[in-house]
Amino acid sequence: MTIRNARTGGQILIDQLVAQGVERVTCVPGESYLAALDALHDSRIDVMICRAEGGAAMMAEAYGKLTGRPGICFVTRGPGSTNASHGVHIAMQDSTPMILFVGQVDTGMREREAFQELDYKAVFGTMAKWAVEIDRPDRIPELVARAFRVALQGRPGPVVISLPENMLTETAAVADAPRVEPAISWPAPADLERLAAMIANAKAPIAILGGSGWTAESAAGVARLAERFDLPVATSFRRASLIDADHSHYAGDLGIGPSPNLKARVTGADVILLIGGRLSEMPSASYTLLDIPVPSQKLIHVHPGSEEVGRVYQPALAIQAAPAAFAAAVESLKPTTTPTWKGEAAKAHADYLAWTETPRELPGPFQYGKVVTWLRDRLPKDAIVCNGAGNYAGWLHRHHRFHTFAAQLAPTSGSMDYGVPAAVLAKRQFPDRVVVAFAGDGCFLMNGQEFATAVQYDAAIIVIVIDNAQYGTIRMHQERDYPGRVIGTQLRNPDFALYAKAFGGHGEQVERTEEFAPAFERALASGKPAILHCLLDPRAISVAKNFVPQEKTS
User: Fold this and answer.
1) Is 191 helix (H, G, I), strand (E, B) or coil?
2) Residue 552 in this model has a pLDDT that exceeds 70
3) Are 30 and 128 in a shared domain?
4) Where are the alpha helices (DSSP H) in 20-78?
5) pLDDT > 90: percent of the chain
6) pLDDT (mean) for 10-35
7) 490 and 433 share a domain?
């Protein structure tokens, strides 16, 4: 390694990002990291200026999902970091590589509760894979390289790096660290032999795909494995784009309110091949699909993180391997006899198509389910579809069909306000692909200001705001658990079409089903970021049911 001439800490830091192949960063500027911003000025890194730290962090997390390399976000100290925390939390629960750089007070002022001072190791200690403060500029290459390795290796996740203000302006002569490529764990040959034997001896096996660390090639490789063994394949919550929905072996997604036939197929399986995922609360129907700690099904758990294998479910066969390594290793596996369950994958796929095909009739003139099925047929197969959290996402998850790897950007953590910032980043990353964000009226206004970021960078996303004038998910729970006692869920909303126009985008309001298709085509043709404000009857409380209005609400 070559020692370079003395540079400021800010210059050393940005040079490390260049060495790691970082192509863009998201940020909200702050005086606590001005030296790093100044160094970015002379780099070739694309700097995306965002309107709030939460949106900036979510964009970085979306970058990690789309590319497999850590998304990079810069925020200022104190409230800047806490605003960004929900992006870090998403990255942790979604197993997404991400690095958050946070400004910090001068080292000579620490422990005095100086202006916006926080202990970032304490604040992010349970939310990130690693939190560290860099005290000396000569240690920046060492610790940034380590951060990339921690974010990428094993179960991917977020790292938080605190940058004291004076450290960024001090100088040091130090060599740059080389680009980090993560160490990848591979299955042992003996484990592959056991896996093949367990599947061969099964009577009702199923594969479930989830987690992160996938590539388009590894997803295709696992699909070929399923074809050879005639395995039905399900996807975990909000991981539907790990296999083409048109694939003959796709059985559907294990999300909230899954298909009863798929749920029965999982509980009735004798062998489950779980690849990449954790089968946590949402996809496991609140930990009811598998017994804990020892499932009644024989569980083959393939996961890149040793700490996750056996954490909840004790597997019959544990394989520590990244999805890409696993897919490559099983390429030569072939059945030696005709499977006894032959034909079950085709039945599972037929069940999936039947479950997702026809939406139910809703109260009111806007039939949201029909709009989703129209988009399902209209959107290009490589379109990227994003959403946050809320009951509005239920229609999307049930009736839309994903065809291309990484075409779904959605938080398994269930964070609201994710769809818009994720869509902005996706369009910036893939300007030639159609990018659509779904948001509820409550969801949208938590990060709707990032529509201004879309306008600033000519990121022509289409945001579909489903407005039922309430926090619908919470209203649904209230109707179930406290009928007749609704409180705190009603919303009075602005005209979101005018909101779009105020920022310089395209906006239209949609009140009836037949108005949607031409409005969508006009939005697409405008070449601008667009919002389609769709008015949904408040009684359409979820994809599965309506509610009966109460006389008194608060």
Assistant:
1) helix
2) no
3) yes
4) 34-41, 53-67
5) 89
6) 97
7) yes
